[in-house]
Design a protein that fits this description.
The complex is a heterodimer of chains A (about 525) and B (about 120). Chain A is α/β, with parallel strands linked by helices and about 525 residues long. Chain A has 19 helices and 16 strands. In chain A, a hairpin with a 3-residue loop joins strand 4 and strand 5. In chain A, helix 8 crosses helix 13, helix 9 packs across helix 11 and helix 17 packs across helix 18. The longest helix of chain A has 21 residues. About 5% of the residues of chain A have low confidence. Chain B is of the alpha/beta class and about 120 residues long. Chain B has a single domain, classed as HprK N-terminal domain-like (Udp-n-acetylmuramoylalanyl-d-glutamate--2,6- Diaminopimelate Ligase, Chain: A, domain 1, 3-Layer(aba) Sandwich), CATH 3.40.1390. In chain B, about 40% of the residues lie in helices and about 15% in strands. Chain B has a five-stranded mixed sheet with strand order 1-5-4-3-2, with helices on both faces. The two termini of chain B are about 25 Å apart. Classes of the chains: A alpha/beta (about 525), B alpha/beta (about 120). Chains A and B meet through helix 1 and helix 2 of A and helix 2 and helix 3 of B.
């Protein structure tokens, strides 16, 4: 249980509604269903306005329990002489100034009663009014999904905090001088890997220093073939890779194209809600499960290209150069035997000596020769870069993208060309992108996803709503004592994230230099 | 129907920046000047048509995740309201017509088959 109160000033039309606004935020944080939030907003706003219009001052007290919210509004106003009359639709005693603003239509109290599950009104003329209402809601169930994991090399870390600040889901921490990741928040995008100047971060199970023995097929992101400068065409890269022991090289781009065609066909024939979201980037799918769970039904029912490759080639020995931790996690989805993950950095180091010296730039512009699998007339909106992706998903969640048929979101800039594990600039890599996707051959296909995508409970403080609410109030109380400067010295990206860490037992209060300093001052 | 298209067809001028305008899908329109009614009818796919160009209405729009507001008779809200609406992703437009004519034009757009049922 947690209680919060908001004082209200009579006649303060400018701030009116701010209490309702904070309550809305709180309800979202503990995962209350949207319909209940809507009812709470109508009732709370009306109650808040009643105090502003009629009383000198008042107080809104909110009590949050698992399954219901109780709101009590007490004011020092004129009181209601005849409650039955006040409850009649259209009856109002509001002054003209309120009516000019659209208030005072005599619908407030009926609106509150209609939208609440329990409603009481007591009033003493000349003293004030006490209004109580309750809205019940169902706690949302959430199941866990296997999270991706970036790895870290603690000895190389110099504690610069760049990974902590760059992480889009605030999953990174620096504890005891060591980089850590909160796996319940991590989406495997690899932003931290790209940000680390020491190269201390990488993909779990695909160490940069170790290259496993290769045999069978090797799957690489198409952009990998464009990593070796203008003098090295894709064919030479493929030849060098085969010298390492693999008998064929498969670029993922053919599978991406197959997925796009399947998603467009699905959007035209089967989809009921728009836009349809392509599962091309597993990091974005994790982001949706974590931050935009209401969009999960709009994710097209296919596996990501990497998972599709892994499932199709799983019977034979094969390895995959993964572009990010999220792709690595996709390999684990395949039926056993699983595909081995390889670091593109290790692969690059291994074949660099075989590629020297570069020939004359015969293939400086292989992009001309084979245009990238562009959207053409297909109704596909490509979005890349997490900042843009998050904005587009937000728009989609709010129903603002009804004109878009398919959204194809990539966490990295320009898709896997922007992978943190690839050295070449993504724009240059895309330009030099080769004919290799043709080499994927006829076997490239989209694979229907059998498993259901489930929301990730990452943002929930506790599986038990009662405990979650209790934690919410403790986080709130601690956050008020923190400096709010987000200095990062505690190893968390923000003071709010630190407060959550302390309450969740992941950090101690003394980790905050400001709090520790204050405690020393006390004799 | 898209909010941008609706605005064009009824000759209204969109006040908020155009970034979000095109994609906003509206499934219903509600006209009125009583906050309680607007509050009850607002939804993320609703366009409200009203005389009330007030900060209080904007608050209602924010609380209810409203899609957009169309002001009538050329009455523009203050630049502060427009800026606040833009920040919250709420589309504001102003119609030169009065409330009755604006609603008529909107009805013609949303019910292309003919006049309203009696």
């Amino acid at each position: 249980m947690t209680t919060v109160s908001y004082p209200i000033q009579g006649g303060d039309y400018a701030r009116a509604g701010s209490a309702a606004s904070s309550i809305k935020q709180m309800l979202k944080q503990i995962g209350v269903e949207p319909a209940a939030i809507r009812r709470t907003m109508i009732a709370t706003y009306e109650a808040e306005m009643n105090v502003v219009v009629h009383a000198a001052s008042g107080l809104i007290r909110v009590r949050l329990d698992p399954g219901q919210i109780d709101v009590e509004v007490v004011d020092q106003g004129p009181g209601i002489p005849d409650i039955a009359l006040a409850m009649t639709e259209g009856f109002s005693t509001a002054p003209d100034e309120a009516r000019e603003l659209g208030f005072g239509a005599g619908m407030g109290l009926p609106n509150i009663r209609r939208n609440s599950d329990h409603f009481t009104l007591e009033s003493t003329a000349g003293r004030g009014t006490q209004l109580r209402f309750t809205i019940r809601f169902a706690p949302q169930a959430a199941a866990a999904a296997p999270p991706p994991r970036p790895s870290s090399d603690a000895s190389a870390c110099r504690g610069c905090l760049r990974c902590v600040r760059v992480c889009p889901t605030k999953a990174r921490r620096l504890r005891g001088g060591q980089p850590q990741v909160l796996s319940h928040l991590c989406i495997g995008c690899g932003a931290c890997i790209a940000a680390c100047p020491q190269g201390a971060l990488g993909v779990d199970g695909a160490a940069d220093a170790v290259l496993p023995t290769l045999s069978g097929a090797l799957v690489v992101p198409e952009a990998f073939l464009a990593q070796f400068g203008p003098g090295v065409p894709a064919e030479r890269v493929v030849a060098a890779l085969r010298e390492l022991g693999c008998d064929r090289v498969v670029a993922t781009s053919g599978w991406e194209l197959a997925l796009r065609q399947a998603v467009v066909a699905y959007a035209r024939a089967e989809a009921t809600r728009r836009p349809v979201i392509s599962p091309v980037c597993p990091a974005v799918v994790h982001l949706i499960a974590l931050r935009f769970p209401s969009l999960l039904p709009q994710v097209a029912p296919f596996e990501s290209p990497v998972a599709a490759v892994a499932k199709s080639l799983a019977a034979r020995p094969a390895a995959c150069a993964v572009a990010c931790p999220a792709q690595q996690a996709e390999l684990a989805l395949g039926e056993p035997p699983q595909m081995a993950a390889v670091s593109p950095k290790a692969l690059r180091e291994a074949i660099l000596p075989r590629l020297a010296p570069p020939t004359r730039a015969t293939c400086a512009d292989s992009g001309e020769r084979c245009p990238p699998p562009a959207a053409g007339p297909e109704p596909v909106l490509e979005v890349s870069g997490l900042r843009h992706v998050a904005r587009v998903l937000d728009d989609a969640e709010n129903g603002r993208l009804g004109d878009i048929t398919v959204v194809e979101p990539y966490a990295c800039d320009l898709g896997c060309c922007g992978s943190p594990l690839l050295a070449e600039d993504p724009f240059v890599a895309r330009r030099r992108r080769s004919a290799a996707h043709a080499a994927a051959g006829a076997e490239a296909r989209a694979v229907r996803r059998r498993r259901e995508l489930v929301p990730r409970p990452g943002l929930r403080l506790d599986g038990d709503m009662r405990k979650a609410i209790e934690k919410l109030s403790r986080i709130d109380a601690l956050a008020k004592r923190l400096p709010g400067s987000n200095c990062g010295l505690c190893g968390a990206p923000t003071c709010a994230a630190f407060a959550e860490d302390v309450v969740m037992g992941r950090a101690a209060e003394r980790d905050c230099v400001v709090l520790a300093g204050r405690q020393e001052d006390v004799p | 129907m898209k909010l941008g298209e609706l605005a064009t067809q009824i000759g209204a001028r969109v006040l908020t920046p155009p970034r979000r305008r095109a994609g906003v899908e509206v499934t219903r329109v509600y006209a009125g000047d009583i906050i309680s009614d607007l509050l009850r009818e607002a939804s993320e796919t609703t366009l409200l048509v009203t005389h009330l160009a007030s900060p209080q209405l904007l608050r209602v729009a924010e609380l209810m995740d409203l899609a957009g507001i169309c002001f009538v008779q050329g009455r523009e809200p203050t630049p502060e309201i427009v800026a606040a609406a833009a920040e919250r992703g709420i589309v504001l437009m102003v119609s030169p017509l009065d409330l009755f004519e604006t609603c008529g034009a909107l009805h013609a757009c949303t019910h292309p088959a003919g006049p309203a049922e009696p």
